[in-house]
Amino acid sequence: MKINNKTIFLIILSLSLGLSLNAQEGEVKVSQDSDIDKLLEYKKDIKTSKTYTIQVYNSTDPDKAKREKSNFLNSFGEWKVEIVWNTPNYKVWVGNFATRLEADRAWAKIRKKYMNANVIQPRLD
To answer: How remote is the C-alpha of 11 from its chain's centroid?
Structure first.
């Protein structure tokens, strides 16, 4: 194979240009208002149609549901607990999880004490 002077010159030129070029360097600083973190926490607590919750108790007696809510809060104080009335049952629901993964992690802890607990995606009317 015969290489002529023009080819050698183009190879040397492309190598020298490739080595002499440098990428631009810079530094980016992001500053955000501290209220953004508060808004993100607030957004987690807002119910949307795609949230998950854990049902730990179901009864027709509102007093039993209140008692179970208190028992749950004594055992697990890290999640929001509410009693929801769906005719004719009072249900104790725990948490307002944005993803199924978050709900499953909480359910893994809760099911040790509440074996009948279920992860649900409630319909919001």
So the answer is: 53
Give the per-residue pLDDT at 51: 86
Per the CB < 8 A criterion, the answer to whether 57 and 65 are in contact is yes
CA gap 65, 11 in Å, rounded: 81
| Ramachandran class of 39: left when φ > 0, alpha when ψ lies in -120 to 50, beta otherwise | alpha
Cα gap 83→93, rounded to integer Å: 6
- How far is residue 98's CA from residue 21's CA, in Å, rounded to a whole number? 47
The span from the CA of 13 to the CA of 2, in Å, is 19
pLDDT at 15 over 90: no
Distances (CA, A) of 58 to 73, 80, 89, 92: 16, 17, 6, 6
- The length of the chain is 125
Question: How far is the C-alpha of 112 from the C-alpha of 107, rounded, in Å?
Answer: 9
